[in-house]
Design brief:
The protein is 0% helix and 49% strand. The protein is mostly beta strands. The protein has a four-stranded antiparallel β-sheet, with no helix packed on it.
Length: 365
């Protein structure tokens, strides 16, 4: 890391920061005193840490690192690991006026979270987003949480709003990423999102910092840079009209002065999103109306804009369209002459090009 003077003509200081393996610094913040805060991730089991730090031990394949550097660049005020049992990577940092530090990025199984976390890292996970607040001494975590759906997420940037709320920006391939009730967009755009992944190795060692190109059925769809473990991941939006079934993925490395070209293939299976429909019991009086209700969800989140059909005792009585929360309702007029007691209600969603069909039953009394 390096610091230049105000007119960018003089090097104030420049220093290495790292251990004996691969180390990557991805973001920097500076406080008013001139101290710099850097974050990123390390594969080194001897990355420089300081006494009293939150963690001085590498916990997984790679861990987040946070280091506070003195204004003259000659010493570390604190330096710590933060990580779980897999691969953790920080992409962004924000230094608060109080001196505490927020970092955000991608993590997996076992990442440390606080009791008030929004979500904990699920077992076996390898790519969910996280946000962590480290106290001003670098000795303890004040808040830490994960944020994810059923696929992969990465937090890319963060800042603090004027109201004190934290703003985090990133990307997701999950169709069920948690969204708020008043969100601008409540569903994933375009077609389905898929995470294309390839690992580039020399022998058993991952090769970092190289470009991998991905093709689907012979068409180039994008490129990604390999990380410290040699893994390149590209978020591919499957076209809405893509045929269901298996598609061929080819990942290619063009080679360079150090490494020969190589390629590998795999398959992308395009399928519909599984849905779940839940119908609510209802009650009413003969000659009046009863509200029939059903909720359509995918991955725990409501699916909006879908038609739900209702039947009573096997006869179709009407339909409703799901709202932003996935709830559809229909006002059913109970005919005169209807027998008192329980009647069978069925709700059904026929499915479409994106979502699988589902159905549910309830009782009208």
């Amino acid at each position: 890391m390096a610091k230049l003077n105000n007119d960018l003509t003089t090097l104030v200081y420049c220093t290495y920061v790292g251990g004996s393996s691969d180390d990557y610094l991805t973001a920097v913040g500076v406080e008013s005193s001139g101290c710099a805060y850097v974050t990123g991730y390390s594969d080194s089991n001897n990355y420089p840490t300081t006494a009293g730090a939150f963690s001085r031990t590498l916990a997984g394949g790679s861990d987040v690192v946070v280091t506070k550097v003195a204004a003259d660049g000659r010493s570390f005020i604190y330096s710590t690991y933060i990580g779980g049992v897999r691969y953790d990577q920080a992409n962004a940092i924000y230094v608060s006026p109080s001196g505490s530090v927020w970092v955000a990025g991608t993590t997996g199984e076992g990442y440390p979270v606080t009791p008030d976390a929004f979500q904990t890292a699920p077992a076996g996970s390898t790519a969910v987003s996280f946000v962590t607040n480290l106290n001003s001494a670098g000795s303890a975590i004040s808040y830490s949480s994960c944020l994810y759906g059923s696929r992969t997420e990465t937090a890319r940037s963060l800042t603090m709003g004027t109201d004190g709320g934290l703003v985090i920006v990133g990307d997701t391939t999950s169709p069920d990423f948690p969204v708020s009730s008043g969100a601008f967009q409540k569903t994933a755009g375009g077609g389905l999102d898929a995470s294309l992944t390839a690992t580039l190795k020399s022998g058993s060692t991952g090769i970092s910092g190289e470009t991998v190109e991905f093709k689907v059925d012979g068409t180039a769809v994008g490129t990604a840079i390999t990380n410290a473990s040699g893994v390149a991941t590209f978020s591919y939006t499957v076209p809405a009209n893509a045929a269901l079934g298996s598609h061929t993925i080819v990942a290619s490395f063009a080679g360079d002065t150090d490494y020969a070209a190589s390629s590998g293939s795999g398959s992308l299976t395009v399928s519909k999103i599984t849905t779940s429909l839940a119908a609510a019991d209802a009650s009413g009086v003969i000659g009046s109306s009863a509200t029939l209700t059903a909720t359509l969800t995918a991955g725990g989140s409501g699916v909006s804009g879908k038609t739900i059909s209702f039947t009573v005792d096997g006869a179709t009585v009407g339909s409703g369209t799901t709202d932003a929360s996935g709830v559809a309702s229909f006002s059913y007029s109970i005919p005169s002459g209807t027998a008192a007691g329980d009647h069978a209600v069925a709700a059904s969603f026929d499915g479409d090009t994106t979502y699988e069909s589902s159905s549910a039953t309830a009782t009208l009394t």
